[in-house]
Amino acid sequence: MNCTPQHLRSVVEEVIHLAVETRHHIHQYPEIGHQEFATTQYIAGILADAGLEPRVRPARTGLVVDVGAGGPIVAFRADIDALPIQEKTGLPFESQNPGLMHACGHDVHSAIAVGIAVVLSKLEALDGTARFIFQPAEEQFPGGAQDLIDEGLLDGTDSIIAFHVDPALLAGKIGFRAGPITASSDQFHITVEGPGGHTARPHLTADTVYTAGRIITELPPLLDRLIDSRVPLVVVFGSIHGGTADNVIPSKIELRGTARTLGREVWERMPKLVDQLVHEIASPTGATVTVRYATGIAPVINDEHTISEARFAVGQILGPHSVVATQPSMGAEDFSAYLEDIPGAMFRLGAASEGRDPVDLHSSRFDVDERAIETGVLAGAATLMGMLSCNWVGE
């Protein structure tokens, strides 16, 4: 395999227009999780036209394609689903599907994966296999990663990498971090019940509003006192429903929220801990509480060896100025499901433009500096080649 930066750059120059066009098309026709049928077929068509053999999931969305043959097998994950957001960017390729938008960069991730796959197919034979996984439903709870794992798409794979666009990092930069980079994400639903009653005589009933208020205000700080303070934990209520009149103590109040942490051990403790504390908080009030805790997504914990390999490869192809440290996020990513079985890492892909205020992910005005696509193709291809025994030769 020709492992000179100059040769890789020349091949990327031939392919980058295809990656950008792919991003424009996917962005223009976004589809929600598990409904990405047109997106799947479009990506499969682009790859087939390039001489590759994509494998589409029968009667489902998502696909996989291998470049090269034999082992080792290293994978690149790209997510393909959009969000239920009405786009307000004014881009010439703005979403044509009302109420749907690629507001999290999955169109960019998919375009980069297409670009890397085509680039690697044009190089001399790889010393192994690069497997590209185009995953549906990353934005769902839980995400679509586990479905692909259950179907065996990860079988035989030795390691896996992925990018996520970062609107706070300048285009041309790649952010690296060993250890936790994104948090877990669980959901909880707490029901507070009592016989109901008159607000003039709360002593004759169980005051469900008061009980709910105690749970909302006391649960987060109690959790803070029971876990290691060096491990970030965010517990936030997002929905409170109950009551229909100002002089009636309601018989039921519903509370919903999320719990997020960067610590694997804390994540594993949370279901039992939340249930225990909610019951202890409510006990003196006489109200009945029911806790339904849904464990969702584990934290993404990057493998140190994979990070080291990627930092070296990216430094060789983009220069040391492009390699930067990054901070963890309390957002969640179901990429963590792949890391249950094999080592791997997720990297931050700079997507911000110099001199422009960044627009955060999941905003109706979110966009990226498209120079990030070429950076992603170069960095991704170099990393995969390095993980497949490519010994980079300096210029």
Structural features, described:
The protein has 395 residues and is of the alpha/beta class. Helix content is 33%, strand content 26%. The chain has eight helices and 17 strands. The strands form four sheets. The chain has an eight-stranded mixed sheet, with helices on one face. Strand 3, helix 3 and strand 4 form a beta-alpha-beta unit. Helix 1 packs across helix 8, helix 5 packs antiparallel against helix 6 and helix 7 crosses helix 8. It is elongated and about 80 Å long. 47% of the residues are buried. The model has no long low-confidence stretch (mean pLDDT 96).
Strand order of the largest sheet: 1-2-4-3-5-17-6-15
Structure summary, number of beta strands: 17
How large is the share of residues in beta strands?
25-35%
* Measured distance between first and last alpha carbons: 16 Å
Radius of gyration: 24 Å
Instruction: Give the number of helices.
Output: 8
The ordered string of helix (H) and strand (E) elements is HHEEEHEHEEEEEHEEEHEEHEEEH
> Can you give the mean pLDDT?
96
The assigned structural class equals alpha/beta
Main pleated sheet: 8 strands, mixed
Query: What is the helical fraction, as a range of percent?
Result: 25-40%
| Overall geometry | elongated
Low-confidence stretches: none
